[in-house]
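fwd from M.: "can u put these together and see what the complex looks like"

so here's what she sent:
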Amino acid sequence: MNRAAAASRVATMLPWAWLLVFVAAPLVVVAKISLSESAVAQPPYRPRWSWTLDPAAWQAFADGLGLDSYRALLADDLYWRSALASLAIASAATAILVLVGYPVALAMARAPKRLRPVLLAIVILPFWTSFLIRVYAWIAILRPAGLLDAALGLFGLPPLELLNSTPAVLIGIVYAYLPFMVLPIYAVLERRDPALLEAAADLGAGTVATFRTVTLPLSRPGLASGVLLCFVPIFGEFVIPDLLGGSDTLMLGRTLWSEFFGNRDWPLASAVAIVMLLALALPLAWLRESGLRRGDARR
Amino acid sequence: MPARADFASDARVPLVAIEGVTKRFGSALALDDVSLEIGAGEFFCLVGPSGCGKSTLLRTLAGFEQPDEGRTLLDGRDIAGDPPERRPVNIMFQSYALFPHMSAAKNVAYGLARAGLPRAEIAARLRELFALVRLEGFEDRYPAQLSGGQRQRVALARALARRPRLLLLDEPLGALDRRLREATQIELKGIQSRLGTTFVMVTHDQGEAMALADRVAVLDRGRVLEVGPPSALYRRCRTRAVAEFLGDVNVLSGVVVARAGGRAQVRLGESGALVEAADPDGAGETGSNVEVAVRPEGLVPGDALGATVEVATDLGPNALVIARTAGGATLRALLPAPGAAGPPPPGTPVGFAVAPGAAWIVR
Amino acid sequence: MRGARFGGLDLAILAVGLAFLYGPMLLLVLYSFNASRLVTVWGGFSTRWYAALLANEPLREASLVSLRVALVSAALATLVGTLAAILLARPGRVAGRRTFTALLLAPMVLPEVIVGLSLLLLFVALGFERGIWTVTLAHATVTTAFVAVVVQARLLGIERDLEAAARDLGASPATAFLTVTLPLAAPAIGAGFLLAFTLSLDDLVVASFTAGPGSTTLPMRIYSSVRLGVTPEINAASSLLMGLVGAAVLVASLASRRRAPTT
């Protein structure tokens, strides 16, 4: 009994310890370094971490902290523009995803029952294959003299040369995130009672009215989680704007990457991360709350 | 037959003694100072509306809930500190809670394997148990491959496998359709009397309790209202609430005009007719206002109560007549089969009398 | 009632949706067998790019690194994620449940660049040498959340009375967990492992932040050559990877279907 109790205690402590070390601590470190001064050194920031209990060392450390990186963020309009562009692209892409994903989810939910698991598997499968490769596949299609332009040429249409532009980024995002929008909506629609539709029809609602008064309100939770599941990661997306966007397609994720890898300005990259974190805090808190509530309801 | 029996007739130490048990969930009082004694070999039923605390009481006996106050004794020993696995008590869950990843035989053998029984003995016991619940040949089926009735039997066999001193059954027949439920009731009763195991069953169905129980406890809002053999409670309970829970009942008000022994002469308020009612508690002093309970089958054609038929339904063996008196009271009477002419149409004047011994005074 | 039935419009929507999802991938596979180096010109069927792939030493090395990282990080994530899911699925009030959930899900919902940067800064602050181990730990951190979500969903689906029934039949809490809950959650734990494995195999961003000189993963290698343009060799590598993942998912789903009567 004692050994079992000890095992149970370890089973509780391990995940906590893991999350504190690998999730909480890194975010604290990012916050601290965003307040540090960048330096030509290894690692490239000052002051360095001190693991001592000596108050003088902590004082020195605290004295070295400053808001320089945040001032730099405010001073250079590059960051403003990439923040706004991230917001605009994430909003537009999420809107397109709703318009594309909802009909697909609805069609799946309306499909004959024995077909549904197959359709579900087909929609999930791309999620299992490499994200990078799926984005890469679009390069061959969108690039100048690529497959899209060649196909357009067959119909005598002028080439679009979409690669390295914002529309290309939107196409890539919609493509990569479509399953994330379809699945939560489908999950809600699939569970709805078909008798509800019959009841609505019986009470005189036409197809459109039934959709507006029954289907849509009932699918709102799925729609909401689909929107958040897409919006948050798209906001910080790096791979898609980097591979499909042009040099003028600014997004915060890409800016952070180039500050870090290109300019080796770790404090500034950290400051960008903190700003992103704060911008996403609200939708994330909401996501967590709704997730918890769903979890409770199922208990 | 005694009007009330708070204890099993024999004077042995009760198998289970529940003494002043109180259980709260947050601010809600699930059990409120419950005291009960259950004798060895009894088939005991806990009945009451949903949320009355009967399932909580069962889970307390199984060891899944700890009482906040009071004691639970098994064979005179306080079992409060014993975890479920150390109690000689087994429970059959309302959902059956069969392990979906194990065959029927593995399910039934689970408790035997935990007890460390040798393999040969487990095999012998399995044969015995599958024969007991008449499921021979279904040992290797998984729960998903069994019908509702078969699953119910596997759950029963599994709960009986460890030969518990006390078997708890939480709505064991609730998931079965009516026809199957009646057949299973008879079978369950047979198994109980053959094994002599003490059964404590929770049900919200008073008919089931009537059919199966040696004694019944009626619970409401965490309190025990009354305890007794079902036939006695059905015909001579103390309170109106219990009378109404255990079946249809007519409650008439009147004044006691005379008393003799355990009986009272009551003049009914509306018709002025005299009715003899049992009064085991002596609740009705001469001159006091009382309520008299009469089951529908206790009303017979007569002239003590005049009424007009509202609805009459032919039930086959008899007819249920719902009639209204001039004073507006509703009477329900179970009359002999109406014959080919059919039950009386609405508006027909009818008269009733109370059959001898059918009325009793309730509080 | 016309609106309630599956009709031609639904079929068209599904067809377009699925074509959109699978078209680019199919084109990629098709062109990996293209004899011509030019991406838009079909030069006849050839497997030469697959042969070239086998001879590509850096790609092969990166594949091995990726496999090792994926296996170890998925095993770690499965352990931690399953324990976390058990903690979360426990009924009633658990101290710090909200904080725990937030920390658990953060790496799943936060942009990858933030997760990658923060983990790198942690490793630097702790004085860890960057290499295969830092990538492995970083991947385990990201994928733990996914394992926990998958396993927790399954645990919540397991009837609560089952563990109580085991206890009632004489099992200690530990035995009840090992003989009832764990076997029932096993398919989800397996799925969680598979998910963690493929996510690790696929990750570019977090690996780029946390990898050291000797630990270039396959996506990092692919990324650096993709930045230089489309090459048939990468087409071949991608097709191979998609085929592998497709086969793995197929095998996993067939295996879980065979167990269907027991669940």
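replying to her w this: The radius of gyration of chain A is 25 Å.
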